[in-house]
Amino acid sequence: MLTICRYRRLPSNPSPVTALVGILGVLTGLCSPTSVHAGGYVFKSLYSFGSYAYPQDTLVLGTDGNIYGTTEGSGTSHYGMVFNITPSGTFNTLYSFNPSNGTDGDEPKAPLVLGLDGNFYGTATGGGVNNDGAVFKITPSGAETTIYSFGTVTGDGADPQSGLVLGSDGNFYGTTYYGGAGVNAAGTVFKITPGGKLTTLHTFTGTDGSNPFAGLLQASDGNFYGATSRAGLNSQGTIYKITPAGAFSTLYPFTGGSDGAAPQAPLVQGSDGNLYGTATSGNSIQGTVFKMTLAGVLTTLYTFTGGNDGGNPSGLAHGYDGNFYGTTSSDGAGSGGTVFKVNAAGSLTTLYPFTTGLDGGSPGGVYQGSDGSFYGTTVYDGIYGYGTVFKLSEPAASTFALWNNAGQAALWNISSAGTVTSNNFGPYAGWTPTALSSDTSGNAYILWITTSGAASIFKIASNLSLTTSQSFGPFTGWTATSISIGPDGNVHLLWNHAADNEASIFNIKLGSTNTSQAYGPFAGWQATQIAMDSSNNTRLLWNNTSTNAASLWNISGASAVTSESFGPFSGWKAQYLAPGPANLPHLVWNYTSTNAASLWQMLPLGNETSTVLGSVSGWAVTSLAVNWDGDSDLLWTNTATGQASIWDVTSTGAHTSTTYGPYRGWKAIALAPGP
Question: Which residues lie closer than 8 Å to 361 by C-beta, 6 or more apart?
């Protein structure tokens, strides 16, 4: 009763279907047994490389839902390759590098980046016309083009060890490990257009750092931030800032003491605006995790011991839940490195210890896929000894469910095992519970409204006890309709004006201040749903009241808006929006005549996977939530009996369901991710 579609079109006649379309499965004989580790995380080896492959860095999600990466060696000519792999483990070699053709690079060690044109861009450490490395473009089908060849003799740098980053101007930015202009040249920062025009922005000389392994991060202020692995004031490496025009400044010189030394991975920016990163070593320590302000004030959050926590960390990934995830390349309980989770306060949990056996050894970083799982590569070991691709899935998540009975609310916490705990609130005369959200700390938030235009927000702890509440209004003609919690803990509340459908968003710090921003009115359009992503951007769903076309806004910063429109699709209406993994939202469309549902899981560059569910006679979808494991939870309610059914839908479209009720007078109205 479902189908997988990979195009932006909804069926005009959603009749039941029986086939699951798509290539699924795992390559026989290439996977180690699945195992469960800290906190219930499930580890699975997806693929073992042969023939001196040695994959060294993180992976990237393609618009087709597959995962793309590079290897330093292997391929038909043994100079490295580009590959993709499905989330279930089907492997495909896209391109094998061969520098003997005169233009190809060789030994790509860095991750790819997805360009605005839908192609991937990457760097190779060697090869090219001058044998000093290259920048290449490759299509998702495997057509490769060298767009630039580095050369030490031309002073533009050599041996790029890091990947590129896509700048907000549509150009790519990166670093080289060697070369540049002048006698003390020790690597560069460069800009390159998609067409291959390169501009050297800065050449390192030693006093400002040297030999950058790390790539760049473009932060929210528009500037780029990076790290050098050597030199600087204390000869232990640096962190620097560079503007898109090339204005350079050193922000922090490592000392090699408690702050660590030799940072080799890109920085990431947290939802608090600070930068987070790792140092690989230090005096008598095995590396650190640190936080740094944009002004250069550094705080060491965690110091690795080389024991069960591992040693020599690689880069961090900002997880969908607001935590940071990374790997260590050595030590740990299995002596092969680890995967770890660390929060912004520095509390670290080891999620998986590599054994240097079938599971691999010396991991090179992780990437969170659209299914919520973490994917990565190991440089060594596996079946043939030359590295692996692995998948680490989060524990099964719990779910909050909100019920209403004549102004009384019941909040459920449904565990992954199906156990229900609950607490009732009210009834409160004149007030009705209408919406639900949650934060990454396990708190739930209930929105109550009145017919006079007042609203109240209850913050409820994971043990279902009320911790605080705050009321707003009444505001004549306005109704609060949707609520979402940002990774900063602020409450974002959507209001709609009945007369003209103007929208207003409140940004609320409970117990303190709030700000608001109005949008519209736009003739014929109504804002209906709000969702905050893990980068604290606002996703806002608009519906056309006459055609049922939809527009999805992405509001970053104070008010910068980009948007994408969908439809109209005959008979279909976009109704529910929820934030998803990797800042890619999920969206539910309803077929108004039969109540069939279509679940869209957004992919980069405006693509999406859609799954048609239903129709189920007498049932309609009334809420959507995306849990921390990446699965979509759909709430179906029976209009006649009041029963509720919660469907857990995976990224492949497969689903399981549990039905509750009927309970006299009660109706389930909303879901949210549980603690």
Answer: 335, 336, 337, 354, 355, 378, 379, 380, 381
